[in-house]
Amino acid sequence: MVGLLARTLSTDVREEVIHRFAEPPKLSLFEEDKYGVLRHARVSRVRRLSRRYLLAELELLEQFEDPPGPAQFVMIWLPGIDYIPMSIANSDEGRIHIFFSVRGEGTRALANSKGKMVGVVGPLGKPLAVSARSKYVLIAGGTGLAPIIKLARGLSDMGLLAAVIWGTRAREDVGEVPFYFKEVTGCNLTICTEDCSVGFCGRAADLAEEVLPDLENTQVVAAGPNDMLITVADLSMRVGIDPVLILESMVECGLGVCGRCVLGSTGLRLCRDGPAFRASEVMDYLVDVALRRGQKH
Amino acid sequence: MVGLLARTLSTDVREEVIHRFAEPPKLSLFEEDKYGVLRHARVSRVRRLSRRYLLAELELLEQFEDPPGPAQFVMIWLPGIDYIPMSIANSDEGRIHIFFSVRGEGTRALANSKGKMVGVVGPLGKPLAVSARSKYVLIAGGTGLAPIIKLARGLSDMGLLAAVIWGTRAREDVGEVPFYFKEVTGCNLTICTEDCSVGFCGRAADLAEEVLPDLENTQVVAAGPNDMLITVADLSMRVGIDPVLILESMVECGLGVCGRCVLGSTGLRLCRDGPAFRASEVMDYLVDVALRRGQKH
Amino acid sequence: MSLEVTVASLRLKHPVMNASGVLGNTPGGVVKLAKLGFSAIVTKTITPEPREGFKPPTIVRLPTGGLINAVGLANPGKRTIKELVSVAKKLNVPIIVSIAGRSEKEFAEVACEAQRVGADAVELNLSCPHTEGYGLELGADPLKVRSVVESVASVTSVPVLAKLGLSDRVVEAASKALEAGAEALVLINTVKGIYIDVYALRPVLTAVYGGLSGPPIHPIAVRVVYDVYREYQAEIIGVGGILDWKTAAEFIVAGAKAVQVGTALVSNDRIVEDVLEGLRKWLQYFGAGSITELVGAAHKA
Amino acid sequence: MSLEVTVASLRLKHPVMNASGVLGNTPGGVVKLAKLGFSAIVTKTITPEPREGFKPPTIVRLPTGGLINAVGLANPGKRTIKELVSVAKKLNVPIIVSIAGRSEKEFAEVACEAQRVGADAVELNLSCPHTEGYGLELGADPLKVRSVVESVASVTSVPVLAKLGLSDRVVEAASKALEAGAEALVLINTVKGIYIDVYALRPVLTAVYGGLSGPPIHPIAVRVVYDVYREYQAEIIGVGGILDWKTAAEFIVAGAKAVQVGTALVSNDRIVEDVLEGLRKWLQYFGAGSITELVGAAHKA
Ligand SMILES: Cc1cc2nc3c(=O)[nH]c(=O)nc-3n(C[C@H](O)[C@H](O)[C@H](O)COP(=O)(O)OP(=O)(O)OC[C@H]3O[C@@H](n4cnc5c(N)ncnc54)[C@H](O)[C@@H]3O)c2cc1C
Ligand SMILES: Cc1cc2nc3c(=O)[nH]c(=O)nc-3n(C[C@H](O)[C@H](O)[C@H](O)COP(=O)(O)OP(=O)(O)OC[C@H]3O[C@@H](n4cnc5c(N)ncnc54)[C@H](O)[C@@H]3O)c2cc1C
Ligand SMILES: Cc1cc2nc3c(=O)[nH]c(=O)nc-3n(C[C@H](O)[C@H](O)[C@H](O)COP(=O)(O)O)c2cc1C
Ligand SMILES: Cc1cc2nc3c(=O)[nH]c(=O)nc-3n(C[C@H](O)[C@H](O)[C@H](O)COP(=O)(O)O)c2cc1C
Ligand code: FES
Ligand code: FES
Known about the structure:
The complex is a heterotetramer, with two copies of chain A and two copies of chain C. Chain A is α/β, with parallel strands linked by helices. Helix content of chain A is 30%, strand content 28%. The mean pLDDT of chain C is 94. Chain C is globular, with a radius of gyration of 18 Å. The two termini of chain C are 24 Å apart. Chains in contact: A-B, A-C, A-D, B-C, B-D, C-D. Bound molecules: flavin-adenine dinucleotide (2 copies), flavin mononucleotide (FMN) (2 copies) and FE2/S2 (inorganic) cluster (2 copies).
């Protein structure tokens, strides 16, 4: 078990072997990055944009090293309460926006966090890569709008934004959301309501069905409930587009090690390999989840 | 002993206190630097410049982050043998020169290290700060020439070099040293020999005695045996110059923590606060050492 | 020149496995680990029944380096082993099932299930620093270590690996594990620590205590490997803080035949390739034909 | 708002002392420590007779963070205490003499000398991880800890601080130290480790083993402080890995009244000012009048 070298060579000979200069490995001194370190932020404001949607504005005490990219998210630590993933809806030096709705304990605490200090880990996930060679149609459902806001802002700056479709339930849910969207991106939001009270009558996926078949040389990015993502992917694929889908799954560590967010048998980690994926990579997984949920009902 | 705050406030009130936003400390995320990490180098060549002086050329496997400054040094680890401080006599991307003489086990091992791998820690110490407003006279004795070479190269590039005086014992010790010096710095070395076999007849300090009184608006930097440093400092101070002295003392850690290199009661750490000091800071220490050595003899 | 190694009777195409607890808790995670290039897959530690674990935060990075985690041995219970093993078999990668229990019986129970469904080896987690009843107490007591290893070795024929953590008597515990039938030792687990948030005035981990992993524990882990190898020339798998080929090579010269990598995945998905490329050049530098020639080389200096 | 603290009956103008072993071995070193702004000076550990220590390398930085050192308790023997103390007195800074010995008698001998020449306190180093006969075995055995502390406390009237290292029974050892008369505990010393050079195929430190210090051990040290405070609400001085105000503040909320800083000096000569500036704003943030209000605050979450 003792190494052959160590066992068989006398010290002198070994010295020589050791110092015989072959091709030494290229060495880089270790530098641990700050990926995933806990920072602090003060919640300077929580705006109610509508009955359903809220906007939290966070001021970072410790700045990010690099500006976050589209689809990246943070883990928000609400001490003693929860640790939850939230997309970076918008960011400017030292400030980030979180667009969210209250679902459970964590989001409720966030809604009530004005003036408090929270923990922020991120930006996490892979920034969505944008191609300058095509125009983009963005489709969002509900809080799926969050990552779309940041992306729309970037695309609009680059002159690549064709349209942004957003679906929610009713007029009361729309509220100031379009104004906020315009504030940040300079662009208009095409609204869909399920109860037909404003904008297009139907879900975002229904509008997508009307729009997508006519697209050429266009990229599609969608974020929202899985059903919507499946529909959008289906429609897009039929016209030869492999859209980008921004998914959600249970995120625990956000660092790519715990395995909690892995998307079924794909082996893809939402928190690290995503949350934005090509539909072709994740379609089987999405359909699987939908089927399984169907079975449960 | 339990904190007043923790003891006296109910959780709710405390939450409020905690979240009352005063002026939070500015925070920087920790980044440990690489100061003092062990690197590796291959000794590609050991040139004998004269009977007494050798030049080792080291190729670094892991590059320095920043180019070394004048008077900075490295600790050289000769595995299983010794760990010794050596000035960086010259450096170019990925290569460093060590100008030295054989004194004991460590320097003997270095002289015999051609083709071997050694450890290198550095650059250590404070780079000597150069003022662009005056010319420089550099005075070296023996291996004190080592840090002077790098300094001379820099000053010569900046057009600030007035003269470099170097003293050693005899013609046999001079050898190729001046050629090497010229190679690196593009300048001539003014040689002094104690046996009067080449150049100025006498020690470097003797020549300094002739030169220094006539200097105006000139900086003086000296490196070599303590006696020489005391003489140079004395002469310089008499003409109103507070020269820079590059000292030696026992260096163990090179990192400023072990206390081994501290210069008497000054509290100055040679390895970290030096090795270049203003004479006014270290004169008392040098005289003390000289006196004590005198007492021993 | 070869990076092949045989450890605990497992022939591996190279010495780099994943560490237990990273990704090996679901079939998809096993797929990911195979894609990342590990030569063998170690599952998350599995207990007889499913365990929920703590509420997040359970895993956070530390400003002083590395990670701290207290997932509380969250795992889906022994019933999942079958699926994990079958995925690994399909991918043609050896799979080692990590096991914990509150008693010898529980350890043996999970080990039997692992053997039944075709696992290549079992790794006994005798050292989880943050989950009561499963924990450090066990690994710190050499006699308990012996009795757990014995009870597992007596009921299974697959190779048994014993994973120990840092404790005052870790060298002694290692010897008991070997006596009791462990074919190899896995050294070391995370080190108990706390990370407190100075604004929230509370520990960041919900579980308060957590296990420190990553670069900070590397010199500690190398020390344990060195000491155990020096005493027993045992088969050792070194784990703790590997982040490049050099930190992996240190384990090898300290006495490890193979290594495991966990925390490094946070920063580097190419870690396996990076380590292997470095090790290959390192062997070349020494003119060594096989990695095994350098195992324990530091003991000859 | 005040940063003043009283620990082990010593009134300090702020809570940041140096850690034993950095610079406090010569009169010049004491001068330097005072210039660096420490509120009290802790000497290098002193034994009755001078000790040579190991050949260099004795202290090196680690690529994985922090330092590893094995200076082998090199020190000039008890005869130097007088000069060190007199320099500190001249500079008007309290001085704590760190002490080690191979027996109760040796500890007591040095402590008496420290008291005789006017030291403000003694710190018993019960935990040096790399010097045989002085070392870790001592601190890991609660009964030995008690007997050393007792023997010193019985012959001196200066405050006695007991410095412990990481061990399985450190909490128990702390309780024995307190029982035996230690006024405060200093937690923790370095953690045993090895750093091997993969080209030279040998440990870098001449002594092979060394003590790991700096950021890597911070969460471990905070854990020990937290546990000891939770059990005994003792007076604690936290040490290990402080590198900025936050890592210092963590010790305070874990239960330490004061802290010591060693390794951070390698990278930052302004460390004392940096920590104090941060702590001041931190107190302001909480509207706290004194640092003592936050001592142990993490235990109330
Ligand atoms: C990458 C990513 C980005 C997200 N961005 C946003 C956003 O910008 N705006 C927004 O409103 N929501 C976003 N979400 C969803 C959001 O994280 C959950 O709604 C939130 O965690 C719910 O927490 P809760 O405590 O309020 O509710 P709970 O009562 O804990 O749960 C409510 C529902 O939320 C889901 N959920 C709970 N915890 C998590 C978790 N850790 N990870 C993922 N889902 C969880 C569960 O499916 C559950 O049914 C994002 C999720 C992911 C994964
Ligand atoms: C910052 C600095 C830069 C130096 N630069 C050079 C240089 O460029 N060229 C050169 O030839 N010499 C230089 N020296 C001196 C050199 O370090 C010693 O000559 C060398 O360490 C002797 O080692 P040895 O094992 O050969 O001799 P030894 O037999 O160990 O000692 C010979 C003499 O060298 C001195 N010495 C030994 N060890 C050390 C040490 N760790 N630190 C300082 N002095 C020591 C002692 O005073 C001793 O009398 C420098 C010293 C310092 C402090
Ligand atoms: C998130 C996480 C979860 C872990 N879970 C387990 C586990 O279930 N069983 C186990 O034996 N070790 C577990 N460990 C410890 C690792 O297997 C490994 O011993 C330790 O992390 C040191 O290696 P590293 O520094 O490469 O991460 C876990 C480590 C981490 C970081
Ligand atoms: C170079 C060095 C020498 C040390 N010498 C001693 C010593 O003599 N006595 C002692 O009790 N601790 C000694 N220590 C340990 C420190 O006092 C401290 O406990 C440890 O380094 C952790 O603190 P840090 O991370 O701030 O360095 C030494 C540490 C270092 C780095
Ligand atoms: S959430 Fe842990 S791996 Fe993605
Ligand atoms: S050599 Fe250690 S402080 Fe300078």
